[in-house]
Amino acid sequence: MKELIYAEEEKEFLDYYKRLKELLKDTVPWNGEADRFQKDQINLLGQFRDHIHRFAKDAYELRNRKSTLEHSKWNTYHNVNCPECKSKLQLKPIGEIKLDDDLMYFQFYCKKCSMNFESDKPNNDDDLVTWYENKLKALNTVGPEGIKVYQFMKMKEGDFKELIRKGEYFKEKVNEGHLASQAQEKSYQAVMNNTTICLEKIKKMVDVHQEGVNVFGIRPKLRSELPYKYSKDEKELMGLLDYLKDLETHQQLNCIIDNEPLKLIFNRLEPIEEELKSYVNEIKISLQSEEVNLNFKWNNKQDISCTICKKTFKLIPLGEMKAPMNHIHFSYYCPDCNVLFVDQMPNNERDKIKFYENSINNHLTTKEDKEKALQLHGTTEEAIEMVKTQLLQLKENHEREMEYDKSMEEFKEEHKETVKKHVGELIVLKHQLMTGSSVVGES
Fold first, then answer.
1. Of 3, 1, 9, nearest in space to 188 by CA
2. Residue 96: is it exposed, middle or buried by C-beta count within 10 angstroms (0-12/13-18/19+)?
3. How far apart are CA 323 and CA 316, in angstroms?
4. How far apart are CA 425 and CA 433, in angstroms?
5. Band of pLDDT at residue 22, cut at 50, 70 and 90
6. How do residues 364-379 score in pLDDT, each as one tens digit?
7. Confidence class for position 351, pLDDT limits 50, 70, 90
8. SS3 annotation, the chain
9. How far apart are CA 92 and CA 109, in angstroms?
10. Which pLDDT value is given to residue 384?
11. Selected residue with higher pLDDT from 115 and 267
12. Region 77-94: what's the mean pLDDT?
């Protein structure tokens, strides 16, 4: 069975398609539009993958011939004469070089005299045709004595005409081969151009998604529904609480309940345990709040103007894309012109602030240029003031979000320190209980 030969672009496309399938495996889309977009991409790019496999079979002879010719070019022995030591040799070429006649020749290496030298004739058909033409032209040139060079060299008229015939025949065959291969190459190149386009498309989508942009509208796993991951210190604290609670039960079973120091120790266990439960619950509520906001963001219909047909529709996003300014925008599917387009406005507060600042800076030029700038951008003074107002509102919202994020980080850090403190206290109490120190002996 013949092994198919794939071009580098095809290999890369097949690799990216495999990565795309893996990326979307077992994922949940944010909404129906994202679900349709994912399925459309897998279907369309899957059809092109199948086309690549079929094309590789059809193009096998062409690619095999190219591969064979390239291998043969550098692995065929040539009968050559070293111009330096006059040795007759059989050598493989070590390279190629373009000489003063602008034609390409093989280079060989003579081991006897340690010299590089060039082939007598060019190493490709096109240059060989030119070489024949140049040689015939030189032989047919009239010398200073009024006779042609080939006559001066005592070449017979018949031999010169035969040389011309061979040159014309060789040129004709080369041209025939070009015509046949050009048609084949044109058809081949059309498919390869399409491969390049599809490769660029899938490469951009997968690479940008892996940079953190949600190109395919994949809903992340709801962290609020996942079990809370306890830290090492929290696990140690829970272990100490369990130990001391077991000990409390044992003490009660043995009716030793009048030991006031022990009562004080055991009375502290429940508040510590409730404090830990309360923290876990607060984290869960915070995550749920984030998820509600995200769900609204991905499932709330907005008035969006298609950048192609300029019509406005109520749409929900199907994914995200990175714009030239590296801002993240939602992408939508236009129901009228049936194309994917990117919203002009970024979809997050930070990028919106940059977007508005850039819009304002485009018009805050020198006083002399301001009127010209306003006319150039088709913007009025009132529009600029409105953008400034929107920018202030965005900054206020962003600052509130930053303050909330900061307070949550401080809350988490404070909890970490509290847990460490409780662990230290309970370790001391455990040690006192185990060693029978005075705190247990008192009654």
1. 9
2. middle
3. 19
4. 13
5. very high
6. 555 554 555 445 445 5
7. confident
8. CCCCCCCHHHHHHHHHHHHHHHHHCCCEECCHHHHHHHHHHHHHHHHHHHHHHHHHHHCHHHHHHHHHHHHHHHHCCEEEECCCCCCEEEECCCEEEECCCCCEEEEEEECCCCEEEEEEEECCHHHHHHHHHHHHHHHCCECCCCCEHHHHCCCCHHHHHHHHHHHHHHHHHHHHHHHHHHHHHHHHHHHHHHHHHHHHHHHHHHHHHHCCCCCCCEECCCHHHCCCCCCHHHHHHHHHHHHHHHHHHHHHHCCCCCCHHHHHHHHHHHHHHHHHHHHHHHHHHHHHHHHHHHHHHHHCCEEEECCCCCCEEEECCCEEEECCCCCEEEEEECCCCCCEEEEEEECCHHHHHHHHHHHHHCCCCCHHHHHHHHHHHCCCHHHHHHHHHHHHHHHHHHHHHHHHHHHHHHHHHHHHHHHHHHHHHHHHHHHHHHHCCHHHHCC
9. 9
10. 63
11. 115
12. 93
Asked whether residue 122 carries a pLDDT value surpassing 70, the answer given is: yes
The Cβ-side half-sphere exposure at 394, using a 13 Å CA radius, reads 18
Q: Give the integer Cα–Cα distance in Å for 285 and 279.
A: 10
Q: How far apart are CA 150 and CA 163, in angstroms?
A: 11
Q: Which of 12-26, 114-128, 376-390 has the lowest mean pLDDT?
A: 376-390
Q: Which residue has the tokens 């940079």?
A: 211
Q: Which amino acid is at 216?
A: F
Give the start-to-end residue ranges of the domains of the chain: 76-169, 233-300+348-443
Give the C-alpha distances (Å, rounded to integers) separating 417 from 233, 278, 281, 422, 440. Answer: 10, 16, 18, 9, 28
Token output for 124? 């490709």
φ, ψ of residue 326 in degrees (nearest 5):
70, 15
Burial (CB count within 10 angstroms: exposed 0-12, middle 13-18, buried 19+), residue 17: buried
Of 207-221, 337-351, 396-410, highest mean pLDDT: 207-221
- Which residue do the tokens 């769900």 mark? 295
Residue 163 makes CB contacts below 8 A (sequence gap 6+) with 136, 139
CA atoms of 5 and 64, how far apart (whole Å): 7
Cα–Cα distance measured from residue 393 to residue 401, given in angstroms and rounded to the nearest whole number: 12
Q: Which one has a higher pLDDT value, 369 or 328? A: 328
Report field, pTM of the whole predicted structure over 0.85: no
pLDDT band at residue 438, thresholds of 50, 70 and 90? very low
